[in-house]
TrEMBL record:
<dbReference type="GO" id="GO:0022857">
    <property type="term" value="F:transmembrane transporter activity"/>
</dbReference>
<keyword id="KW-0812">Transmembrane</keyword>
<dbReference type="InterPro" id="IPR053200">
    <property type="entry name" value="YfmO-like"/>
</dbReference>
<keyword id="KW-0472">Membrane</keyword>
<feature type="compositionally biased region" description="Low complexity">
    <location>
        <begin position="1"/>
        <end position="21"/>
    </location>
</feature>
<feature type="domain" description="Major facilitator superfamily (MFS) profile">
    <location>
        <begin position="34"/>
        <end position="417"/>
    </location>
</feature>
<dbReference type="InterPro" id="IPR011701">
    <property type="entry name" value="MFS"/>
</dbReference>
<feature type="transmembrane region" description="Helical">
    <location>
        <begin position="72"/>
        <end position="91"/>
    </location>
</feature>
<dbReference type="InterPro" id="IPR001958">
    <property type="entry name" value="Tet-R_TetA/multi-R_MdtG-like"/>
</dbReference>
<dbReference type="InterPro" id="IPR036259">
    <property type="entry name" value="MFS_trans_sf"/>
</dbReference>
<keyword id="KW-1133">Transmembrane helix</keyword>
<dbReference type="InterPro" id="IPR020846">
    <property type="entry name" value="MFS_dom"/>
</dbReference>
<feature type="transmembrane region" description="Helical">
    <location>
        <begin position="103"/>
        <end position="125"/>
    </location>
</feature>
<feature type="transmembrane region" description="Helical">
    <location>
        <begin position="330"/>
        <end position="348"/>
    </location>
</feature>
<feature type="transmembrane region" description="Helical">
    <location>
        <begin position="395"/>
        <end position="413"/>
    </location>
</feature>
<feature type="region of interest" description="Disordered">
    <location>
        <begin position="418"/>
        <end position="438"/>
    </location>
</feature>
<feature type="region of interest" description="Disordered">
    <location>
        <begin position="1"/>
        <end position="24"/>
    </location>
</feature>
Amino acid sequence: MSLSTSSTPQQGTAAQQADAAPPRKPSILKQPIAVWAIAFACMVSFMGIGLVDPILPAISQELDATPGQTMLLFTSYLFITGIAMFFTGWVSSRIGIKKTLMIGLVLIVAFAALAGASGSVGEIIGFRAGWGLGNALFISTALSAIVGAAAGGSSQAVMLYEAALGVGMAVGPLLGGLLGSLSWRGPFFGTAALMAVGFIAVMALLRGPQNAPTTGGRVSLTAGFSALKDPALRVLALTALFYNFAFFILLAYSPYPLESAAAAHGAEFGAHELGLVFFGWGLALAIASVFLAPMLTRRFGLRPVLYTMLVLLAACMAVAALAIDSLPTLIVMIVLSGLFQGVMNTALTETVMEATELPRSIASSTYSGVRFLGGAVAPAVAGPLSEALGAEVPYWLAVVTIAIAVLVLAIGGRHLSGPARPHESAEAEAEAIAVGSE
């Protein structure tokens, strides 16, 4: 009897200790295979943004096109992506997340392959527009699909999405350079093949409620445009429009000054070399987006970080303009700009999520739509300006648009009272960033 009585408290203590033990932190790596399929497709989708960068000069030479014409590959892609972003919430709320993903993936595969088979730069420009429509449908719903299928809560899904985004932005130019050194058609066919694999994987593995249309939460057709009535969102969207102009001056225009600076010193700077430079830029962008930005915004607050990154980016553009014939200086400024742009992208999208009471899906789609439109204008303007006024002029114009972004942010600051405060929760911050990155 004494044995029985003495063992009871010990068992009770053990049970209490087991109950009190902290739950094991879920691992980002322990995810259903459907999540990995979507993450892979996300990575390839974001690769498509910088994939054509290293092959722009090669397309100019092979298809007898001017730099201004080839840079329209970015313009058509970004313009259609931006316009479509205003309507993707309406589409997915009616046909469901999975069908939206599937349509987006089919369009990317088809138009990437058609771009690779093109016989003129005009055809590629047109097919890149169709690619942009598919990209808008896909990236606007990819995060929701990952969150719905992931194990371990939304924070794990968010980190996986951010990792896929970062890897895609970094690897895109590198793969474009490697395949582009064989033929300018290689990156297009490579993207089509990888996205076809992603399509098959997502179609076979993604199951559940994401297959059905949203019930009770349908988005109106004009919701994206109506969101611009919100003063905070309007200020941030305009800031992003002018900032993204400078972003795509760097990304779409820089291959030409790099090639010219190398040629002036008797060096050859082809697709492979350009791919390595923009891989460095993409790697800096990814590291800054995922690791550096959360640390800085928690410590200093969102708006101070935004102002600082804009000023530093403007300084990089000014140095690039002043040293337009120096290959080493241009390379350093491009890679360094990736750090500032990575922090800026993350901080700006997070500010959008915190500054408005609009539904996050609507706020992010509207913000992304305006942002992409700013990027679409830059390549269309950079080519004619450089041909008429000099190679350094597009960089100086980027400095001007960054200054306008700072001015818009300063004048509209009264609408952004919340984001000036430093953050308390790193997990909540990461979730807001990723939702805004759709």
